[in-house]
Amino acid sequence: MDVAHLLFGIFGNASALFLFLAPVITFKRIIQNRSTEKFSGIPYVMTLLNCLLSAWYGLPFVSPHNILVSTVNGTGSLIEIVYVLIFIVLAPKKQKAKILGLFTFVLSVFSAVVFVSLFALHGNSRKLFCGFAAAIFSIIMYGSPLSIMRLVIKTKSVEFMPFFLSLFVFLCGTSWFIFGLLGRDPFVAVPNGVGSALGAMQLILYFVYRDNKGDTGKKAPTVEEFMEMGDAKPQQGKQSNANGTQG
């Protein structure tokens, strides 16, 4: 691994860590209120699956020279597990069952990938299998803000699309895209190239609609709302005062 390859890997670790830690303020609020309110736990469960598969793919016996992929995604897996467990404990009964079911699905998929890659595949076939699995769920994770982008275009307001979150999605995707190119690894480059493009689109939308952040009579969004990575929806009774709901 040359110096440039290493530097982009380190920068990718730093920017990804910010994304993993962004919801901390939101979860502080959830714990204090003993309720998940209208926040959705689904993005955290799907991010957990992406982190687990990417961490596994980065291990030396699966794909050489990708240990930095494992370090950041291993850390991300631990953080996302904490988020998911908080949702399972504090979410309403119906949502709790849904999140628990998805969590079980995630662990089952990851266990199946690990089992097949360890006992049925070897060498390049193992790398291809794990790489495709990790890449698919990385693209799904990066694609999760599409509903927010659609909302921004519909309402012409960036109220529910945090600038710094969009910025770090772009920086994270770009750094890992370049890392994948330098390492000639399409399973790292392609999904993060998609993430970089989507992050750039979010930033373009932000600068197009930055002067319109919703109804001036509406209470300013809290820090928690700006840092939220999940899917928060305004309460039904307040929708008439908002530009729209977060999809």
Description:
There is one protein chain. The chain has 247 residues and is mainly α. The chain has helices at 3-21, 24-33, 42-57, 67-90, 93-119, 123-143, 146-155, 163-182, 186-209, 223-227. α1 packs parallel to α4 (67-90), α3 (42-57) packs antiparallel against α4 (67-90) and α8 packs antiparallel against α9 (186-209). Mean pLDDT is 80; it is low at 216-247.
Features:
single chain; 247 residues; mainly alpha; 71% helix; globular; disordered C terminus
> How much β-strand is present in the residues?
under 5%
Largest sheet: none
Order of helices and strands: HHHHHHHHHH
**Treating each run of at least 4 consecutive H or I residues as one helix, how many helices?**
10
Radius of gyration: 19 Å
Low-confidence stretches: 216-247
Average residue-wise pLDDT: 80
- The helix fraction, in percent, is over 70%
Q: Outline, from the CA principal axes?
A: globular
User: Separation of termini?
Assistant: 41 Å
Q: Output the structural class.
A: mainly alpha
By DSSP, the count of extended strands is 0
